[in-house]
Amino acid sequence: MCAYFGRPEPRLVLIGEYPLWDEALAALNRDLAATVPDQRPLCLIAYPESGDLDEQVYVALSNGEAHGSSLMSGKSAAEAVMAVADAGQDTVTERLWRVWPVCTVHDLGMHPRDVDGTPSWWCAGGPRKGDPAHIRAAIGELDTVHPPRRPNRKRPKARKPR
Ligand SMILES: [Zn+2]
């Protein structure tokens, strides 16, 4: 547990307390399971209200360690997915010291981006021209993305006209 001085202990948020965040977390955990199979699912923890502060909810590792800011209550399911993905990515990156999730085509960390209302993983793309930024998959659907073809097998290159 990451106990902060003078702060009460966090509690585990139970399924059903925050339905939008439950669904968002389920989507994020699908992506985690698809890409880091040895990692146990993320969970929600809450610090009780104190003073002027309402209860603060964080996305945490299964051992209760969290990093980054608390979740802001959004109105839509898409907002919830964006918020949970952002927070979960912070926690995984800072607590596990790894870039996550990684675009397997470009070996780059991806970021949540709202694409016409669909929360998605965005990759900055390759350094070469013709290898632009792209959307890898909707958040929660990384398991539908197939790994790239064997990297050591070269595809025939289009010849450049001289
Ligand atoms: Zn990429």
Task: Briefly summarize what is shown.
This protein is of the alpha+beta class and 162 residues long. It has helices at residues 19-35, 77-96; strands at residues 11-12, 43-47, 56-60, 102-103, 108-109, 111-115, 118-123, 134-138.
Report on the structure:
This protein has 162 residues and is α+β, with helices and mostly antiparallel strands. The chain has one domain. Helix content is 23%, strand content 20%. The chain contains 2 helices and 8 strands, in the order βαββαβββββ. The chain has a 3-stranded antiparallel β-sheet with strand order 1-2-3. It has a 3-stranded antiparallel β-sheet with strand order 6-7-8, with helices on one face. Helix 1 crosses helix 2 (77-96). The longest helix has 20 residues, at 77-96. It is elongated and about 65 Å long. The N and C termini lie far apart (63 Å). The model has no long low-confidence stretch (mean pLDDT 88). The chain binds zinc ion. Zinc ion (ZN) binds at residues 103, 105-106, 108, 123, 125, 134.
Task: List the topology elements.
Elements: E1 11-12, H1 19-35, E2 43-47, E3 56-60, H2 77-96, E4 102-103, E5 108-109, E6 111-115, E7 118-123, E8 134-138
Antiparallel strand pairs: 1-2, 2-3, 4-5, 6-7, 7-8
Helix pairs in contact: 1-2
